[in-house]
Amino acid sequence: MPHTYETDGTAIYQKSFAIIRAEADLTRFDADEEPVVVRMIHAAGMIGLEAFIRFSPGMALDAKKHAGLIGEKKLSSSDAKLLAVKPVLVSWSIGYAD
Fold this sequence. Notes:
Strand order of the largest sheet: 1-2
Helix content: 40-55%
Number of helices: 4
Strand content: under 5%
Order of helices and strands: HHHEEH
Shape: globular
Number of domains: 1
Structural class: mainly alpha
């Protein structure tokens, strides 16, 4: 029996994000933080990462602006370029089990 594979990139992303939203515990994230967390989990390929993510006040909105998104509306390319030169600071610590 031949296998069929999804080749539409948009459909693949939508399915991936739907799986993440179904499997990850996103309940403590607000409407600005949730899409950022979903993208971080997608990039890492790691359900469970959400347990280690913390946001400083306003950080999620700044991250969305940096990505060229405000809500679901795309920024103009010139605005996105201006926002893209701002650094995004990330702080983390890694604990290792003995």
